[in-house]
Specification:
Distance between the termini: 42 Å
Shape: globular
Structural class: alpha/beta
CATH class: Alpha Beta
Radius of gyration: 18 Å
Strand order of the largest sheet: 3-2-1-4-5-6-7
Oligomer: single chain
Largest sheet: 7 strands, parallel
Helix content: 40-55%
Length: 265
């Protein structure tokens, strides 16, 4: 039996990147998963790979009714909801703060924070009743930028820092029925995209892989699958039932970054 046999989960932004790796790993561990995705092609790909172990809702994490529909799908198709993983996000590609025109700042702020913060809050609020009934858990996707500067611009880093406080406050308010934790990945090869009109993807940036490899002690750019097992650990009651308000960093040791030591012979 898998570590999540009999569990029902909801992952937002689970069509690509870290979210997709979490969906794949949850299914491999025995869970059935609802995925809130933006594109029909992502929904088709998930259905082709996982069949009836996965159910997709095509929608927008910024929309209250789409989040409600995803929770209702989990309860209708799978009978309950044990785990919520708010994961969808957008990036600002480290745009310098002074490069943002003052007249555009409010719009850009809302575009990014509405996905990166409001989307998490909407999913959480929509799932409260179902998670309280199952004594389930919430696992946020944070970032190394939740703790350190330099991994994005002012808007992105601010949004990820905001979620640290959100995890702590919700862990405080929702105990003892619901555990609230997070995983904070560092540099990862994903298609993380930007604000409307920005066609760049993080992993496609020239020099991105080498930059990450130089700046973390473990010396390589991670893959989405490198983080997925941590979500399983936090989801499984048998493994983490006494854990809440915890943020697991999966970032190659960036806190002790610097020149990598050579392996002694």
């Amino acid at each position: 039996m898998g570590r999540l046999e009999g569990y029902s989960a909801l992952v937002t932004g689970g069509g690509k990147g870290i979210g997709r790796a979490v969906v794949d790993r949850f299914v491999a561990e025995g869970a059935r998963v609802v995925v809130l995705v933006r594109s029909g092609s992502d929904a088709e790909a998930l259905a082709a790979q996982h069949g009836d172990r996965v159910a997709c809702v095509t929608g927008d994490v910024r929309n209250w009714q789409d989040n409600v529909a995803a929770v209702e799908m989990a309860e209708t198709r799978f009978g309950k909801l044990d785990v919520l993983v708010p994961n969808a996000g957008v990036y600002d590609f480290s745009d310098p703060f002074e490069s943002l025109a003052g007249e555009d700042l409010a719009t850009r702020y809302r575009q990014l924070f509405d996905v990166n913060v409001l989307g998490y809050l909407l999913a959480t609020r929509a799932a409260l009743g179902a998670l309280r009934a199952s004594r389930g858990s919430i696992i946020y996707t944070l970032s190394s930028s939740s703790f350190f500067a330099g991994g994005g611009g002012a808007l992105y880093v601010s949004s990820k820092h905001a979620l640290v406080g959100t995890v702590k406050q919700l862990a405080y308010e929702l105990a003892p029925e619901i555990r609230v934790n997070a995983v904070a990945p560092g540099g990862t090869r994903t298609g993380l995209g930007g604000l409307p009109g920005d066609t760049r993807a993080l992993a496609d940036l020239a020099g991105f892989e080498d930059m990450v490899a130089r700046n973390v002690p473990l010396g390589f750019l991670s893959e989405p699958e490198d983080h997925a097992g941590l979500y399983v650990t936090l989801a499984a009651r048998e493994e983490s039932r006494f854990v809440t308000s915890e943020i697991i960093r999966s970032d190659g040791g960036i806190e002790v970054r610097g020149r990598r030591r050579k392996t002694s012979s």
